[in-house]
Amino acid sequence: MEWDWEGFRHAAAAFPKPSGIDFSYGTAGFRLDASLLASTVFRAGVLAALRSLSMKSATGLVITASHNPASDNGVKLVDPGGGMLAMRWEPHANAMANASDEHALTEVVRKIIKEESIAFGDESCGKVLLARDTRPSGQILLAAASQGVAAVAGVAPVDMGILTTPQLHWMVCALNKDQPATEVNYYSHLSQAFRTLEQLRPDKSVRRSSLASESIIIDGANGVGALKLLQLQELLENLQFEVRNCGRAGEGGLNDGVGADFVQKEKAFPRNFDKSDALKKCASIDGDADRLVYFYFISSTISSPSTFNLLDGDKISALFARFIRNQLQSLVEDVEEKPIITTTLVAGYGDVRVGVVQTAYANGASTKYLQQELGLEVSLTSTGVKYLHEKASEYDIGIYFEANGHGTILFREEFLAFLRTKHMWGKPSIHRLLAVSEMINQAVGDALSGILMVEIVLMYLGWSIQDWNDIYADLPSKQLKVKVANRAAIRTTASETKVVYPSELQKAIDTEVGKYDGGRSFVRPSGTEDIVRIYAEATTQSTADALAQAVAFHVYRLAGGVGPQPS
Ligand code: 16G
Ligand code: ZN
After folding, report:
1. Which of 279, 311, 343 is where one domain is finished?
2. CATH number at residue 236
3. What is the pLDDT of residues 174-200, one digit of tens each?
4. Count of domains in the chain?
5. CB 109 within 8 A of CB 97
6. I want to staple 411 with a disulfide (CB 3.0 to 4.6 A). Which of 166, 437, 445, 468 is the partner?
């Protein structure tokens, strides 16, 4: 098939790059004010099409700016396996987005075709699934992305409509495995696995603790996830939830004082929740439904003040890890009577490696719980789903979560194949693990499948949200940010726990940390803004605050702070 370069240039010319803007792929794709994005999404469409040809499989593209304000938009790219675009291709995305005009873009595309040895066959062989969230700018931007895909010879765009980000990831993954991959298939797949897990519950008469409540109130961030939750609910007879902040008239705007990012950062109720919801189990998802946190509120009594309790990604991860460990343990006890520590010897398979992946932001109390109470291996990666996902895929069962609520549980294909061959063992834990692997999104963190997983585990344990919260108490922590002239002026180790450059900064942090009992602090340049983020943890809130302040001052002093100096 001949590439029609003339036609390509013509298509690209309809989406001129705004001058004076340097587009950067960032941690999870391009994201900025929607009015500036048409050229970038057209080009991202071209890139997704090239990636599809290069991998000879379908890829995906979602128009979303996640938890950002409604006036922003963005684009996330999905690789054939269902994960995020391979990091090796990110420089291609940047080069394309920043090409000055259609001629420069053509040169960049030619270079990528050569570098990646992309061949053009005689028939159409590429496919890109496209989706968008509910932002008003989404429709026009999706059309631009679709034209970008179609501008590449032999690649077809397929508009999947309004979806959550994880739904599109799931569909790309399913399609490339030749499995049913529509939105209806997604709901039936998740709900069927949930029902299987309900049926496999060991003791259905287990008494819930007095405060355990069946129902759950979910803050939908006034976004796409709310709509999809309502669809999912229709298939779940035994799970009751009320969805608030669905984007109905009077409920407020997308991500405006609502959503998982707001709840996690502010440690406060989202809009349309209040003290009358005391003791109720509540959850919050973000604008594209790939983050999940839980929360509840205890109203004040004469003896104690009211408290807002956040159960963040770390607590979700700990709950999941506990469940997985219990299932494996019963598998081993049934077979060989062996305790689990880090790896589990299962007859016929060998060591089953279970690992939990966190970032440096994970609360120290969660890491301690995973290692000391559950006896599990914990590894740290840089911030950003792509790093955690990659690390988690090294395990037979890899559980990963960022404190902000991004995460999932990954099962190695060989391990699942082994479990399937052992169906005849008739061990419930085998069937449970298989059902979890069907229910929890294997492509990317997914708030909808995360809710189902949290609810089923609480059901198994007969726990209330308070019982779950009590598995460990978070250490007091504080986060600050310092504006800097150039965030690249700070470099850290891969785990982001130490500054490598400037080295005086790490020495200063060590000195400050040494002043506080149980203190921990690290700094890292943001991957999404021109700032350096500071994290501090200590045994009391006032010492965590003081440590963060002191470290912020050193960042300002030694890493080119701009604007007002931290006091
Ligand atoms: C993006 C990442 C998130 C990360 C955050 C860090 C994805 C899907 N999202 O939102 O994982 O925690 O960036 O932002 O990868 P920061 O670099 O500004 O701290
Ligand atoms: Zn998101």
Report:
1. 311
2. 3.40.120.10
3. 999 999 999 999 999 999 999 999 999
4. 4
5. no
6. 437
